[in-house]
Amino acid sequence: MRRTLTTFRTLVAATILTAAVGASSTSFAQQTRDGMNPTGQNPTAESVNEEFLFKQDPKITGRISIPDGKAAHLIQPAGRDYRDFRERWLPWLSALAVLGAVALLGLFYYFRGRILMERGPDTGRKILRFNGFERFAHWMTSSCFIILALSGLNYIFGKRLLMPLIGADAFGVVAQYAKFSHIYLAWPFMIGVALMLVLWLKDNIPNKIDIDWIKAFGGFVGDKHPSAGRFNAGQKMVFWMVIGFGSAMSVTGLMMIFPFALTDITGMQLMQVIHALIGIAFIAGILAHIYIGTLGMEGAYDAMGSGKVDLGWAKVHHDLWVEEEQAKTASGPQLGRHQVPAE
Amino acid sequence: MARMKFLCDADRCIECNACVTACKNEHEVPWGINRRRVVTLNDGKPGERSVSMACMHCTDAPCAAVCPVNCFYTTADAVVLHSKDICIGCGYCFYACPFGAPQYPKVGNFGSRGKMDKCTYCAGGPESDFSTIEYEKYGSNRLAEGKLPLCAEMCSTKALLAGDGEMIAQIYKQRVIKRGYGSGAWGWKTAYRETVAI
Amino acid sequence: MKAFIIALVVAVAIGTLAAMLLNQQQRFAYQAFTTSGTRVSDPAGHSNLVGPHWNGVTPDPEKPSKS
Amino acid sequence: MLIKRKTGGPGRTFHPAVAIGDTPRAIDRRAFLRNSGLVAGGLAAAGSIQLGSVRKAQAAGSSAIGPDVTIKKNICTHCSVGCTVTAEVVNGVWVGQEPSFSSPINRGTHCAKGAAIRELVSSDRRLKYPMKMVDGQWTRISWDQAIDEIGDKITGLRDKYGPDSVYWLGSAKFTNEAAYIFRKFGAFWGTNSVDHQARICHSTTVAGVANTWGYGAQTNSYNDIRNAKTMIILGGNPAEAHPVSLQHLLSGKEINRANMIVIDPRFTRTAAHATEYVRIRSGTDIPVVWGILWHIFQNGWEDKEFISQRVYAMDDVRKEVAKWNPEEVERVSGVPGEQLRRVAETFAKEKPATLIWCMGATQHTVGTANVRALCILCLATGNVGKPGTGANIFRGHTNVQGATDMGLDVTSLPLYYGLVEGAWKHWARVWDVEYDWLQSRFDEVPAKAGRKARTRKESMESPGITSTRWFDGVNLPEEQVDQRTGIKAMMVFGHGGNTVTRLPEAVKGLAKLDLLVVADPHPTTFAALDARRDNTYLLPICTSLEMDGSRTASNRSLQWGEQIVKPAFESKNDYEVVYRLAAKLGLADKMFKNIKVVNGVPEAEDILREINRGGWSTGYCGQSPERLKAHMRNQVKFDLVTLRAPKDDPEVGGDYYGLPWPCWGKPELKHPGTHILYNTNLHIKEGGGTFRARFGTERNGVTLLAEDSFAKGSELTDGYPEFTMAVFKKLGWDKDLTADEMASITKIGGANIDAVSWATDLSGGIQRVCLDRGVTPYGNGKARANAWNLPDPVPVHREPIYTPRPDLVAKYPTRPDERQLRMPNIGFSVQKAAVDRGIAKDFPIILTSGRLVEYEGGGEETRSNPWLAELQQDMFVEINTGDAADRGIKDGQFVWVSGPENNAKAKVKALVTDRVGKGVAFMPFHFSGWYQGDDMRKFYPHGTDPVVLGESSNNTTTYGFDPVTGMQETKCTLCQIRAV
């Protein structure tokens, strides 16, 4: 709890910082106009000093003739705060988030075990759950995500974990390629997120059914299955997490890919903080998603693998969707007998 | 053991930019990369002061701390240097640096900005002293020749001081006592968590 | 499986394309920090810290340095 | 070819044993990697401490380059402070610069330009070979062809239009020797139209100061300012123009807690360090100075003893000053009386006080009068001739003082001998040529426009056309130009084309010229204005870093610069080019009769020896090349404040650094030079002196000689005139002369031996005797508060031609139209027209100009240096925040600055700042290459375009010339600024 608070504080501080910059620059401009004629004044006696300037603005900015706006900032002590965040808090936060997620899932697995398929009359019959394009979109996004997550974590943990193992030279090379992959695979990832939004938006609009589903804890607790459409509330949450975090990561990421294009140093620091915090939350969330999609539920992988799920399973987990699909085609997409996955 | 620092006496600095071009001259730094720069505060108004700024070679340097590949190291003279072989050009050091010291050969996108470059306190890099490759990657190594950074040595009004921190603080103190004013050791609080008490 | 393979191939393809585009719009500092009144020579060969060892990659020690 | 610094030996391998064993260092790469591999954070340093302590001890003796590095010393070319440049040269390549700690002038330091000066030599933007414009295209030619064709063309022009049709524009970047042979060449060619940059920087200073107390130069030195308790900097921004001088100023300010008063229309970088800043309206220097003097006289703060002993006619000044009560001063200049009272009291009471000025005072239609007023302020308070006092005039180029001394001036032969017959005869003797032959080289001018005809002798003695008016000499109808024809050819050596006002007129003039020759390291604006199609030549000249020779810094110290590297590309030095031209014209044998020429290149040392043989009038006689070289070798021995070496030093004992002129007598006399002019507290042999008795002994019954004032140890304890044989005979001192000296004097004097003076005695005997008897050879006179030979004997305020205050013109009009220096000066008509047409309403902003620290002069050289160019990439106009807001102008956007003449306009970037007051705009004058909004880059020969181009400030400057020297008005005109 303390950690989240600190994170929050850092964020708030950063926001206030940016706001303060705007505010103080106006007051400074006014002063400029008043102090127009220095006739009769003693320029030596009134020299500016650090303390005075820091009272006006958290960073000291002046005039410089080279056409590089960044260079006009003389001192920005906020770099120290950024460093505090990145070195003191971020490793612990991310370790906690990632390891915590793994631990929680482990516990869940330990207590709940693998959720096995319930055998029923329709077991063995198949229904197409995701068509090829959907699966393509999913896999493109997810494979990129895994690389992005690993290369992203490398920024935090690489020097702590990998570098001592393989040595600086090798690590330098690895990190260089990790950086390249992070920058370049961000693009298919962003496209993937956009594709998923288009493909699955209409099935992910939250509705009343979701409330019941949540009230029933999604059926994870107990053995009663709440009704659900194509996506149950849990999946919707994953969807919206991917969309929300994905776009936040994209926006902040783009700002970082094009440094200083739209913002100054304070903005860049803020982008970094946001990107990192959301990133680790994203990783934790996706870990849960991966767990449910693979280990957590029997035969889960094939849902995205082949796209076809067991009709019986579907009727249990997504009864409303199955009804809808079967209404579309009288026969329904019934295929041969097979092992049945779920997600 | 000397603890090398920079101190810019803003009451002497006249924004002549000698430090900037001396640096270019000594290390053949290309256009667009300014290891040192001069910023004028309160421009055109009474109290105007100019301050020459480069890497301050901080105590517990933030750049070194945030570097994801640990390419920084601190020499026995407390000069903060880095290895361009390991650097991945990520730019985190620029975000952390309170003084805007890190520079990148390419501007535009983060992906391939090249290796970070910054003031070396005229102390070269990790390669062996006076080697061609050291010179080409980091510039010349005056410190190993027993000389101080050229920017400070050539400062037109001797505003920019370089050398052992205690010695230059002493010089500055004496100046302030002599003349009766002084706007302080710019950046020292941020860089060294101390200031020159008069 | 097919969708997966295609996804990987496409991801790599888009990534490569992105790399190419990004690198194309990448500008050297000497181009970026230049205004309309200037014509700057390419610093490679004239300046240090650029040129053959631009990226800091260790050069072939056998290759004689430009003299 | 090695072009950049690289290590001498083969690069070391990265075998760890070698790396650690060979060069111990703070932390070697391997160790560092090991450390960072083991520990995540900051422990790397801890692991290396032991290594580091070893390094310090062992690294001391090592060198970055190796044993084959040679050190060469030359002088920075970018201002007059005279900073020593220490170059590291390997295999003939300039690979590095080191601080010149031993120089007492710069003590290791440099400004941006000096710290970047190495690039000048290896710049890829240099002019690489001679070029000729053929039908609008630049074509490469050989040196032989260039000299041949140019020689033929000027000979043709001379035959057709006379020698005055060719204009010889020299350079303040010449060495003394080059300036001297260039002036000599002009004399041999037969014209007095030989000029250089001093015309547009300190010509009014030279005229004003010389007319006050004798010599037109800085009286003290940069170093001596350390002694001052009060300094007024009026119309100068040394923080940008002479940054290294600020080392001395600020030290003085700190050590003496000196008052540093800056009087300027602009809150400059210098003003930022002032203890008091006085903002004035441009062009009201005289009211301000008189306003200060008003308080001084009112309160009796003047130095009455000094005035009575050493100043002539101060009462005439009192009458004029009485008109400038605080109310009138404030009405005209905008400075409140209370502030001026404070300044006046400080300057008069907290002594020693010095007055520093620069082009803010000189570049006006009243430039000479301004300078005179400033001198009078020094005189009234007794602030001349002592340490910490004086008129410290900061000059602009490396050798602008020397080039002025060497007579690159339309009014004088070398060393201020003037153009009178005696001067010509003196130099004819030094040059060993017939006076009559020299005379035959000059032109006969027919009577025209009501003016009488001029004989050859009269032409010889008539001042030439000033560089500020060369294009008027081309454009004006021939009857208005007081010579046979107008100017037909420009021979431009080391001089930018954009530094003279009224650039649009210059462009017209360029188009009309029959021949244009630009001899310069860079093509310069002259070559790139797109005015010409043919008959244009570019000759690549090396920088003065690539040649030997002496330079005279602003403080009159001569420093010997040695060639650092051989001239780059096909460039040649000035000596060789002048020699080749002379040879082509058949003048070489006569001109270089007594000068050693090695492989077609005259030897600098030998030229200096000839200067020594003739330079008596200014004390350029004692500075032999050997002595100057000894000074460069022994720089470290000279004191920082007194500039003097200890007396017991075998080589330079007792000398002042650089033997600041006057350095009397022959070199063997070992006169130490004169650090502080007119200092009566020292024996003349120790560098003392008196005011020069240059203007006679009495006027209207009032003596012009000093009263009860004389230099220490003088045998004559009162004022005395300058020494001639007549005076010597009267005193009986002629007996002191040796037989050889007498023989020489007799030979010079001929029938009239009495007329031989301290300045024309080639034997040096008169000066030797003077020194022995402790008297100053030039006499002991009074400084003149009233200089009756000048247009305004006592300075009076005159509004600028284009004034923002037309209401003041009736009371303070500019001088009536008159003719000066072969040209009409119609300032009065222009001013009247401007007032009548209400120009000040359409152009409400005062436009002033000045220098940036990164650039120098016309800026071709410095704008071609990427290290400097990066720092100032755009021509800009400083505009006040209020004016910008009124016009909707944002910082950094393009604006049009338009001027009242020629529909002139310039497209520049706005720099919105409070450095300038409301209603004032400032532009730097270093830019060119854009013309009225067009980029002219393509007109430069391929690859020689400077890195940075921009509008020249002189696109919009206007008419206005000082009546004495033809100085242009750059500091006060009017403009309008509009957003693009």
UniProtKB/TrEMBL annotation, chain A:
Cited Gene3D superfamilies: Transmembrane di-heme cytochromes, Chain C (1.20.950.20)
Cofactor needs: heme
Compartment(s) of residence: Cell membrane
Pfam families: Ni_hydr_CYTB (PF01292)
All residue ranges annotated as the Cytochrome b561 bacterial/Ni-hydrogenase domain in the record: 129-299
Membrane-crossing segments per the record: 89-111, 136-157, 183-201, 238-261, 273-292
Main location: membrane
InterPro entries: Cyt_b561_bac/Ni-Hgenase, Di-haem_cyt_TM, FDH_cytochrome_b556_subunit, Formate_DH_gsu
A GO MF term: electron transfer activity
Signal peptide: 1-29
UniProt-listed GO biological process terms: anaerobic respiration; formate oxidation; respiratory electron transport chain
One Gene Ontology cellular component: plasma membrane
Membrane topology: Multi-pass membrane protein
Keyword Membrane: yes
Keywords: Cell membrane, Electron transport, Heme, Iron, Membrane, Metal-binding, Plasmid, Signal, Transmembrane, Transmembrane helix, Transport
Recorded family membership: Belongs to the formate dehydrogenase gamma subunit family.
Protein name: Formate dehydrogenase, cytochrome b556(Fdo) subunit
Annotated gene: fdoI
Automatic annotation (TrEMBL), chain B:
Coiled coil: none
Family matches, as CDD domains: DMSOR_beta_like
Record's keyword annotation contains 4Fe-4S: yes
Domain (4Fe-4S ferredoxin-type) ranges: 4-34, 78-107
Molecular functions per Gene Ontology: 4 iron, 4 sulfur cluster binding; metal ion binding
Keyword Iron-sulfur: yes
Pfam families: Fer4_11
Classification via InterPro entries: 4Fe4S_Fe-S-bd (IPR017896), 4Fe4S_Fe_S_CS (IPR017900), ET_IronSulfur_Cluster-Binding (IPR050954)
Keywords of the record: 4Fe-4S, Iron, Iron-sulfur, Metal-binding, Plasmid
Name used for this protein in its record: Formate dehydrogenase iron-sulfur subunit
The species this protein was found in: Methylobacterium bullatum
The gene coding this protein: fdhB1
From TrEMBL, chain C:
Name of this protein: Uncharacterized protein
Region (Disordered): 37-67
Automatic annotation (TrEMBL), chain D:
Gene Ontology cellular-component terms listed: cell envelope
Subcellular location: Cell envelope
GO BP terms: anaerobic respiration
Listed GO MF terms: 4 iron, 4 sulfur cluster binding; electron transfer activity; molybdenum ion binding; molybdopterin cofactor binding; oxidoreductase activity
Domain 4Fe-4S Mo/W bis-MGD-type: 69-125
Coiled coil: none
InterPro entries recorded: Asp_de-COase-like_dom_sf, MoPterin_dinucl-bd_dom, Mopterin_OxRdtase, Mopterin_OxRdtase_4Fe-4S_dom, MopterinOxRdtase_cofactor_BS, TAT_signal
Any Pfam family matching the protein: Molybdopterin
Cofactors: Mo-bis(molybdopterin guanine dinucleotide); [4Fe-4S] cluster
Alphabetical UniProt keywords: 4Fe-4S, Iron, Iron-sulfur, Metal-binding, Molybdenum, Oxidoreductase, Signal
Main location: other
Protein family per UniProt: Belongs to the prokaryotic molybdopterin-containing oxidoreductase family.
Protein name: Periplasmic nitrate reductase
Native species: Methylobacterium bullatum
